[in-house]
Amino acid sequence: MDIDLFSNYLLITVFTLFSIMRIEHYRRARKAGYRTVVSESRKYSIWLSVFICYEVFTLFAHIRIRSLDWAPRLLSWAALDLPPALRLLGALLALAALALFLWIHRTLGSNLSATLKIKENHTLVTNGPYALVRHPMYTAFFLLHIAVFFLTANWFIGITWLVGLSLIIVLRVIREEAMLIDRFGDKYRFYMDRTGRFLPPTRVARSSTKC
Q1: Which residues contact 153 (CB under 8 A, 6 or more apart)?
Q2: What architecture is the 3-194 domain classified under in CATH?
Q3: Nearest-5° Cα angle at 29, 27 to 35
Q4: CA–CA distance, 83 with 153 (Å, rounded to integer)
Q5: Domain residues of the chain, as ranges?
């Protein structure tokens, strides 16, 4: 088996399915037609769009179509000689991330949005993956980016994608939780106390009071 060819085809498949899933669920959320009452700054949205464009460009710069021998291999200088076991682990992580994304999107329903916003009908989702983790969407993105690193076997892609994602999430999660506290008050504070931010908690919640 040609591990490079397999990795490239899997990357194309995963990102294609991910894009179709996002577009369809965004369409359903917009169809609900609920008014936005709070939204993130335009500056953040621009930086997020720039980062997404960067990821798309570097991914396509990495993927080589074998039938085009003349195609430039722009990122071959950063290639790593990873063992096949790690490349296959990347494939499993990518599929796991895709399954998690599907679960998250179905759980969010009309609360889903492309940008950080609070809608007039916004509800606090605490079921599905949100029962233990407050931001499983970010967890899924981290999982997918680690998978991309293993599948591409390229240290430049791995480092820049993970660093960029980390910066964006750190900046976003603080504002997101502040917005949710402002919207839901003590109900969200209690939810924070019994859940982990990106991973399930390893401790028992300090209070057993239910909202």
Answers
A1: 4, 7, 79, 80, 81, 82, 86, 87
A2: Up-down Bundle (1.20)
A3: 120
A4: 9
A5: 3-194
Ramachandran bin of 109, using left for φ above 0, alpha for ψ from -120 to 50, beta for the remaining angles: left
**For 48-191, where are the E strands, in sequence order?**
117-119
φ, ψ at 79 (rounded to 5°):
-70, 145
Task: Give per-residue pLDDT as tens, 121-137.
Answer: 678 889 999 999 999 99
What does DSSP assign to residue 67?
Answer: T
Radius of gyration from C-alpha coordinates of the chain: 19
Helices (H), 32-135: 42-62, 84-108
pLDDT tens track for 48-60 = 888 989 999 899 8
Are residues 190 and 126 in contact, defined by beta-carbon separation less than 8 angstroms?
Answer: no
Whether residue 62 contacts residue 6, with contact meaning beta carbons closer than 8 Å, is answered with no
Measure Cα distances from 202 to 150, 195, 210 in Å: 28, 9, 20
